[in-house]
Amino acid sequence: xxxxxxxxxxxxxxxxxxxxxxxxxxxxxxxxxxxxxxxxxxxxxxxxxxxxxxxxxxxxxxxxxxxxxxxxxxxxxxxxxxxxxxxxxxxxxxxxxxxxxxxxxxxxxxxxxxxxxxxxxxxxxxxxxxxxxxxxxxxxxxxxxxxxxxxxxxxxxxxxxxxxxxxxxxxxxxxxxxxxxxxxxxxxxxxxxxxxxxxxxxxxxxxxxxxxxxxxxxxxxxxxxxxxxxxxxxxxxxxxxxxxxxxxxxxxxxxxxxxxxxxxxxxxxxxxxxxxxxxxxxxxxxxxxxxxxxxxxxxxxxxxxxxxxxxxxxxxxxxxxxxxxxxxxxxxxxxxxxxxxxxxxxxxxxxxxxxxxxxxxxxxxxxxxxxxxxxxxxxxxxxxxxxxxxxxxxxxxxxxxxxxxxxxxxxxxxxxxxxxxxxxxxxxxxxxxxxxxxxxxxxxxxxxxxxxxxxxxxxxxxxxxxxxxxxxxxxxxxxxxxxxxxxxxxxxxxxxxxxxxxxxxxxxxxxxxxxxxxxxxxxxxxxxxxxxxxxxxxxxxxxxxxxxxxxxxxxxxxxxxxxxxxxxxxxxxxxxxxxxxxxxxxxxxxxxxxxxxxxxxx
Length: 602
Prior knowledge:
By secondary structure, the chain is mainly β.
């Protein structure tokens, strides 16, 4: 085929085209060398099958050709060659020369890619990678790993020798399944930006399981260690999104460049079980983490699932990541439910974090929903273990419940300042109980750290004790200031059965304050406390329209250590205080003096 020309296979009367290469047969590549341009390949049929290493490929040192597949019924890609180990698939590549990699466009009823087969567009020379566009009327499925340990999936990349931007991956279908190590992956390992991944599914996206090689199923945007460029964005639009059994949506920076953002729009449900949505800056990387935005009706995280934006610590010879952690924004019109722990003791949760040895501020967490529940050891935390500041946690909801060890924790363990916790809740706030499996969780975490020779501390993973509650703390070796806790405009706030709201400073920084504004506050074996070891802060302010009720040894207390602990030296211990319909404002300030101000509510 002359340079730049096309090859066409068009036969509506033939229902299927099969390309299969066994034994020592040559692979089905179109390879044009030199500086010439690759020709286009167009295939029109009912069903296209590529098996046992069969390939349709366009390679060139100049501009690689485009590949267009129009298969009215199905495209099936399966397996690897039995003798040469090459994956079945469709690929375009620009290598060594100057030019653009070709595009891949597939239009079909269903696309099934299994056992290590792959769609690939990459650039290893000087030029941009091609786009991969999939339009499948019914379904797309990427499943399994081949005998060559390659995952089944779609891959777009700037390779380590490449200079140019990778192509985008765009997929439109009725349903999408990624299973047993199946992946959609866009990355940069050379000099250039990774491509975006844009997935539009009318029904369900399901991501499940790991491959035989141990790799997780998922959607990934990567800036590799050798990469210099920004990661691509991941956008998912569907009716529902389900991630189970150690699967991922992930944007990660290991080189030099900002991570991509993750956008999820699922009209009905986003559900994670032992799975993760992650935006991260890992050891050795320089760049900012991307943001995570989720819009849905219901969000559930169970069995150790996490949504996180993090800058991670050093590992081996690699220094800690350097960059700002991303924002996490969740809008779920009906409910957000976080519960349980994973097999290694990690809590289900929403996490914005900069670790010890890393540098940069952590991002904020904002959740807007109808009902918010965190239970059974689950966790929401914004934390800093270095000189960067932690972000704030804001929950906007009709009802909020932290039960059976569910916690929101903001903490600093170094010189950075902790962020604040703010609950804007219209109806009720309930904090109750403790985690009955807390000791088992600690044992699992200790075992994981020991067996993998990790440098983590248990306190880095378990931020507080077993009690349900809101906690803004500083650790004993920290110098940063603690965060404050605000509960605004709740009609009913109830703390019972060991539940707590606590601000404390065990280091040299100031503790934060506690402010509760609403109608009523009931403590039934509950605690509100402010503690400082050596610095200022720790005031408690209550502004209540109806009543304050304390029973069963409930406590509202402030305690101070050494100097300059203004307003910190009085403990308030009451059995019952009920004044209705007055507004109570209780402020502890200065030392050894409790001011109780009663103001008519107008």
